[in-house]
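Section 4.2 – Deliverable D4.2 (structural model, holo form)

The reporting period included a commitment to supply a predicted holo structure for the target in complex with guanine. Inputs used:
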Amino acid sequence: MTATIIDGKAFAAHLKEDVARKVAILKKDHNLTPGLAVVLVGEDPASQVYVRNKNKSTVAAGMKSFEFLMEDTVSEAELIEKVKELNNDPSVHGILVQLPLPKHINEAAVIETISPEKDVDGFHVINSGLLATGGKGMVPCTPLGCLMMLKDVLGNLSGLDAVVVGRSNIVGKPMAQLLLNESCTVTIAHSRTKNLPEVVGRADIVVAAVGVPELVKGDWIKKGATVIDVGINRIEKDDGKTKLVGDVEFASAVNRAGAITPVPGGVGPMTIAVLLQNTVTAACRQNGIDEPA
Ligand code: GUN
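Output (C-alpha cells):
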C-alpha cells in the first residue's frame, strides 16, 4: 500500500484563491480592504524569507500589506510602542510579530500587547483561552491549516484516536485543542513520553511537530493512518549538500500511512494561506460584517 500524498501546495493555492474572492467582495460591497501588518526585528535570514513571502501573498490576495523592519537593537519598549500604534490603526486588521525575537525582548510581553482581535497568529492568551473553552477567537495558522487538510482527507474526525507529537504553544497545544474540539481522543506526546512507538502506533491521526528530523519512524505508523508532518528540518547529506526533511521518516511512512503530507510541499505552504484567511476573518469581525461565504 502506498499512501495518498496530501498536496499542500494545491491546497494552499485553493485557499488563497478563496481569500482573494472574499477580499474582492469586501472591497466592492463594504469598501473594506483587509490589512496585515508584519513586524520583523533583526536580520535572521529564514525570518526574512517568511516575511517577504507573507508580503507578496498578502498583496496578491488584494489586501494591504504593511511591513515594519526594526534593528535587532530595538528595545522592548520601542517594539511595544509600535504594536500599540498598529492596534490603534483602523487600516490594520491583523498584526504579526515574527518570532523568534532577540533575547533581550520578552516575547510574551510583546504578544500580550497585540489586541486579541488583531492577533492573526492566535498566540495571545485570550485567544488560546478561547480556543481551549470553545469560544470564537483567532486560531494559530499552522494547526488550523493542518485541521483543514485532515478534514479534507477524512471528513468527520469524531471518535478518532489522534496523537500530536510536540507540545509547543505555536503548534502542538493548539493542534491538540482543535482535534479535541472535533471530538477526537487526543494524546499529546513529547520528548519525555515513554514508549513513543506504541503511542504513535495507536493513532488514526498523527501530527508530528517536534522539530527533530525523522523522529517518527515509518514502522511505528498504524496501517492506513493519516500523517501530518509539520517539521521542517534542514539536514546535511553525505555529499555535504543540505536537504529538507520533516519530523517523520517519509520514505518508510509512505508505505504504511493512508495519507501523508510531504516535506517540503505539505503543511508549509498552508500556513501563509491560513494567515491571509485569518486576516479576512479579523477584518470582518472588527467591522461587524458577516464574512463572505
Ligand atoms: N516564526 C515561525 N513561525 C511563525 C509564525 O507562525 N508566526 C510568527 N509570528 N512567527 C513565526
